[in-house]
Amino acid sequence: MKTGFIGLGNLGIVIAENLLAAQQPLYVYNRTAAKAQGLIAQGAIVCTSVQELAAQCDVVFSIVSDDAALNHITQGPDGIAAHLKPGGIHIAMSTILPDTAIALEALHRQHGSIYLAAPLMARPEAARARKINFLVSGNQEAIQQVRPLLEQAGAAGIWEFGDTAGAANVAKLSSNYLILTAMEALAEGINLARRSGIDADLWMKMLTSTIFNAPVYASYSQLILKEAFQPAGFSLKLGLKDMNLVLQQAANVQAVMPVGTQVQQLLQESVAGGLGDHDVTAVARTIGALS
Amino acid sequence: MKTGFIGLGNLGIVIAENLLAAQQPLYVYNRTAAKAQGLIAQGAIVCTSVQELAAQCDVVFSIVSDDAALNHITQGPDGIAAHLKPGGIHIAMSTILPDTAIALEALHRQHGSIYLAAPLMARPEAARARKINFLVSGNQEAIQQVRPLLEQAGAAGIWEFGDTAGAANVAKLSSNYLILTAMEALAEGINLARRSGIDADLWMKMLTSTIFNAPVYASYSQLILKEAFQPAGFSLKLGLKDMNLVLQQAANVQAVMPVGTQVQQLLQESVAGGLGDHDVTAVARTIGALS
Amino acid sequence: MKTGFIGLGNLGIVIAENLLAAQQPLYVYNRTAAKAQGLIAQGAIVCTSVQELAAQCDVVFSIVSDDAALNHITQGPDGIAAHLKPGGIHIAMSTILPDTAIALEALHRQHGSIYLAAPLMARPEAARARKINFLVSGNQEAIQQVRPLLEQAGAAGIWEFGDTAGAANVAKLSSNYLILTAMEALAEGINLARRSGIDADLWMKMLTSTIFNAPVYASYSQLILKEAFQPAGFSLKLGLKDMNLVLQQAANVQAVMPVGTQVQQLLQESVAGGLGDHDVTAVARTIGALS
Amino acid sequence: MKTGFIGLGNLGIVIAENLLAAQQPLYVYNRTAAKAQGLIAQGAIVCTSVQELAAQCDVVFSIVSDDAALNHITQGPDGIAAHLKPGGIHIAMSTILPDTAIALEALHRQHGSIYLAAPLMARPEAARARKINFLVSGNQEAIQQVRPLLEQAGAAGIWEFGDTAGAANVAKLSSNYLILTAMEALAEGINLARRSGIDADLWMKMLTSTIFNAPVYASYSQLILKEAFQPAGFSLKLGLKDMNLVLQQAANVQAVMPVGTQVQQLLQESVAGGLGDHDVTAVARTIGALS
User: Fold this and answer.
1) Active site residue: C172, C205, C237, C241, which one?
2) How far is B266 from A259, CA to CA, in rounded Å?
3) What residue ranges define each of the domains in chain A, with the CATH number in brackets?
4) Transmembrane stretches, by residue range (chains A, B, C, D) (predicted)?
């Protein structure tokens, strides 16, 4: 199977390198061409347009910044859907609205190709360590077909959410919701602890070695305690983008999310305050967490 | 050292039994006498008043429902402080305001005895399995003196937060804050997932076996998914009481807690709606989480 | 000037009748034809399509339910923009996003016609009493040209917000934001007063005859106190739609609106709870206001 | 009737002067004696203690900063209750918790005197113009007896809330709740309008001359638009104090107040940010309202 890869951002480039390491011939395209050039030495074949890439591949991975960017590379006369061969598979890894996935799945179907939703859970360093959890949904046969590819891409886990493209996107948004609220709760808790004069590091050590011994709490608490807001592992503006998607989905299905709206407001206040490029944990600064 | 124990609620009785198992002579008192009677067979000596118990013990454990109850058994002519012998130690395990602890520490000091704050983390079943984490603070010498007793009481961990009685209470309140917000975030996330039509059980399985693999998330998600709101492990009205203490402490130290206030409102709405005796996870019902 | 009118909902029909009373020949169109028929006796000429109406008018008023409906009647080969004569004026009275107005203004300009934003403040009974406040923005010359028409439509006040179409829409959304928050604040205040056992009617009488002697407070407090939630003067689902527009605009310009998000959640919870067709004041029921 | 007056803060001094203008002999006491001295020229008789004042008066007005201060001057061997003659009346004008009023009413009853709750609505300049609205509750006969005095004190309106002392305090807290939420809503609305690029002054002029033509909206909108945050008419820290009382009362009666909690958080964030002595409208700065 000829495989293509579109989108060489922080995470995309790591996944592309994982694929290349598995001896794949890999066709790559990136809006900013320079990033693609860097992969030639590892065996990548650089394409100069989405169209050129899609036309010669059986499977196309994509990981771009948001719904608009994914629509841009998929729709229209120059898009993936118009050029992917019949039976070809588009594995879309971006964090987007379920409705966007549903619309793109229908578009691919019209063109005789297949759209799979495959958003993923992993920071770049975890992706490099091949510890990616893929959340997938869509055409069941196609999913079985691409599992080996996902493993080559760095999968530690592949979680199947059924035959509707949007399902995996729901799972991904709901997960990011939990991550962002845990992060904000940590910021508030650490703020309370510090202002009340106790050793917040010891307090967090206690919790993260007992009932909160999960990676999310361990990593975010350290970022907040050390005020390691730059460089951003997960930037505040991306966190805000994700939380806005969460609330848009919540509005669509009439789910009240009182804590979610609160966190969205704090992220928005932080971005308005100039912290957009800091790590998402910099909301601690917005709420006045002392150090 | 003669040891006393006041407060035989759900958790208190388990800790008292742990102590009795260690061959301690144990003097016990409970407002409702019947519960104390049940411990006679295990070697308890039942006292008919706080005063009687305090007068003959070197160390007194207490675990009562709230600040008012602790003040009631500690202050006044019939209280622990007035009757505990010089050098005696009061180990107060209740979840209370730091300011209450500070005031009671001062009161004991006036009487020549010692007050230690020792709130704990453990549901009854964990306490029975001797997996209690004690958060302690106060007189350093006294803490070293009572460590063996805490181990007999079921300590898996003893975390020392310094020489101010209130410090351990801050750590405890901050911990309960994190627990309650994690719980509400789970309820909102599960609601979003379900209303969006995905398999919420699978989604939670994915998260609790990866980045959220912590006991808090594992246990609360199961309670919400199964709607196992009765009998209550941690009742909604107690959750509300704790969150009110958190926000009172936050107001004292001018810590903003936007998510905390949101969770407090939901707990209050739930109690007003008649769910006070249900498990705290029943807030899921208040926000309309479908099943 | 030949004048057209599209959209005969609760408010539209009153404004159309105001115009007819001023001896205008008035071309009318409504998706549901029956409502238009009822105006024939008053001198209306019924058109069978938007295209037919637009083609023969110099000025077209429109008042439809939302952004999508306004886009639908304005864009495309059958829309107002394609058929209104050069120099013709489209007076759009719907409550919509500023960005929608800006896009439609540009579309009209391409076709040589003019788009004016003219959202309005008035419940149907006030419109009938000719007490409408129009908020207008767009082409300055056109605004002066249509002022007499707005007066015939029932204007008590015409407020000009400048030459950008979106400006009047911002003013309208910001106004609805204030109305909806005042309403929710009243519900919470009345709830507090009642649960605390005082005479809430007297309390409101005191306030609305002193520092809160404004129509918004007078009318909404009565609706809440009397639980007059049906029929709806301003339905909960429309209130939710408006608040969602407010927050979408707030996100666009990075304005934090903590109270706004709170009210949006309560409206959403109320709609999810089946109160969508009740008056917006029925949020009082959602928060448990006793009577 | 010999009349006393305790508490010569910004508002107290104006009311005392109103009383003095009515030819009353007026016994005055203030913790900081200098303020009392200033009234001698107008006919005041300065007392050096609460006890001294209470012992020689038939009626004592008090207006002190909070619940603790009112308890301090009323309770104990030196307090008003212990020294006011049988049948004497204590008119307590402070904004306090209903429960505090209920307790003090009982205390006075034990001593054979009468406690009336008489919180008031008026900024100092309005008090000087004799436009005070008194909210009163308690012993009905006593209320009728003191009405002439309240008029001399500057009453434009006297609103009777029944025979329980706490009732008037509920009405007062509920009123301040409405004021503070209206204020925050204005700040958010003005922020949205400005960031969206419209003329916020014109927008507010439109609203305050139509559906929001009430003093609260007129005055607060001007303070926010002009950023006239100093000197404070109603300081942020007092606003926070009042909102904390509101939420304490809400917790007591299980009233959910989602908007109230949000405003409380913003006030708290503002005080933590150093704005405690600014006008309460300075929350506009906290939410980033541009000018």
Assistant:
1) C172
2) 10
3) 3-163 (3.40.50.720), 169-286 (1.10.1040.10)
4) none
